[in-house]
Amino acid sequence: MGGAFVSVYLATPVPAGAQRGSAITLAPAKPHVTEGYITTEDGVRLFYSVVGTGSRTVILPGRLFLMPTLRSLARVRRLVFYDTRARGKSDAVHDPARETILDDVRDMEAVRKGVGAEKVSLVGYSYMGLLVMLYAQAHPDHVDRIVQMDPVPPRFDATYPRGLTEDYMAALDSAAAHRVERLQKEGLDRDHPKEYCEADWDVNRFALVGDPKHVQRLSVTAKEHCAMPNEWPVNLDKHVEASIASIKPVVLTKASLNSITVPVLTVHGTRDRNAPYGGGREWAMSLPNARLLTVRGGAHQSFDEYPEIVLPALETFLAGHWPSGVEKVTALLPAQSRNLDGVSRTLPTVRRVGVGGRSIGAVVAGRGAATIVFESGLGVEMDDWRPLADSLSDVAVTVRYDRAGIGVSEPGVQPRTAEQVARDLHVLLVGLHTRPPYVLVGHSFGALFVRVFAHMFPKEVSGLVLIDPSDEQYRALQRTSLSREAFAAREARLIAAFPADGPPGPRAEFLMRDSSFAQAAAAWPLPSAPTVVLDVHTH
């Protein structure tokens, strides 16, 4: 019987933090599908299925598990599913020296070239969650974003505390597991490998779901799985041993992880028994531009168990935006596991309010007579305020949020001027049922927005804190003190930091900065409320 690291693709988890019941956008009933083989440098044929004809290409190794459910993402893109070597319908290899993760990296490059794609998004499930990261390291110019689904940890020898790992065997029917083990000892796996495979799958599939009642949601049946000789345990176990041996020496240094700068969405279930949830948290914490979507109660095949959570998240992310409910991980242990005083603390819940027909995400926490509202700098997400907000939670209600088109919030009404941001914030605060007056805290470019808000809604403001505030006079000084060429070169460098294919919010605000500066200059007088300016200069 295959071990915990073997059942599917060496490992597999499920997401938490997202809301169940989200609508799923399905692809057309019969998207265009082509199938065939791509031959690698060493002569191994990889079986592939291309679904859809969109201009953007997504490469998804692990066709046998991913294609039945994820093919719905082909509505506006081309999905290239393929079986890695010695898996599914691809060629068997039977040579441990040629069944390594580095062979899989080379094979992925062969697939990219074979389908004629210059730049691709990658989706890596289980063991392939590590594979896609190694590929991105080796071929950074060909990758624009990455999804890891229930990935194995970034370190083979990683161990995690209780709450971040689950017991594989506890999910199985012990009597049925012992029966399958006895069949293997009797040689059924060698004499009748297909029949043994089906018996083994019927037992181990329960480890792939967090709730045993969900086992019927798995998209691959025992007969479908075991119709492929590569998946028979008598063959698969040897391949898995070779794969595991090849990843043991893999070392991802801090520098190598920091080199992967493309957006990475890690999806992981809290009850994953094949690849621990702690591994997903470690990936999201270690990468410079990653977010974690936790599927609470999900296990190794969260995309099958909770497609209403996972598919909309993938659709949003592959379209260029962070989905709602994601976490910017700053600590391995979730908040509810870090308390030492017996007080139950949970991860902050993102509350969503309709503003101008679009969804804006915010976190409201704490208690007290005062309400403090945090306004971030240009392109900065609300999670940067979390340490400060948490430190004030015993004395005040705190509100932090992502402006339109940033983080978990959808793009908003255009143009994104300071006055529009102030109007959006007012609608958000009303929708959150917070009580004015507010202490407004604005950092950098966000200081412009709180100044304009204070001028537009003076009776709702009890204080202002401006941290390293942007200044309209400084920008005017730059225009007059720099030559036309120097000013134009500086503007070009600045706008390059907000590319058109990046998150829409920061670019939209940046392009309207002159209007926002003018509106801030005209936002006078400010209310007669205490105002503190914190301006740090280094010499």
CATH-level-4 superfamily name of the largest domain: Alpha/Beta hydrolase fold, catalytic domain
CATH topology of the largest domain: Rossmann fold
Total beta-strand segments:
15
Point out poorly predicted stretches.
Answer: 1-29, 337-347
The CATH architecture of the largest domain comes to: 3-Layer(aba) Sandwich
Give the mean pLDDT: 88
> Given the C-alpha coordinates, what overall shape results?
elongated
What is the C-level CATH assignment of the largest domain?
A: Alpha Beta
Largest sheet: 8 strands, mixed
Helix count?
A: 19
Distance between the termini: 66 Å
In percent terms, what proportion of residues is strand? 15-25%
Structural class: alpha/beta
Spatial strand order of the main sheet: 1-2-4-3-5-6-7-8
Radius of gyration: 26 Å
The helix content is 25-40%
Number of domains: 2
Protein architecture, described:
This protein has 539 residues and is α/β, with parallel strands linked by helices. The chain has two domains: 286 residues, Alpha/Beta hydrolase fold, catalytic domain (Rossmann fold); 185 residues, Alpha/Beta hydrolase fold, catalytic domain (Rossmann fold). Helices cover 35% and strands 17% of the residues. The strands form two sheets. It has an eight-stranded mixed beta sheet, with helices on both faces. A seven-stranded mixed beta sheet has the order 9-10-12-11-13-14-15. α1 links the parallel β3 and β4. α14 packs across α15 and α15 crosses α19. It is elongated and about 85 Å long.
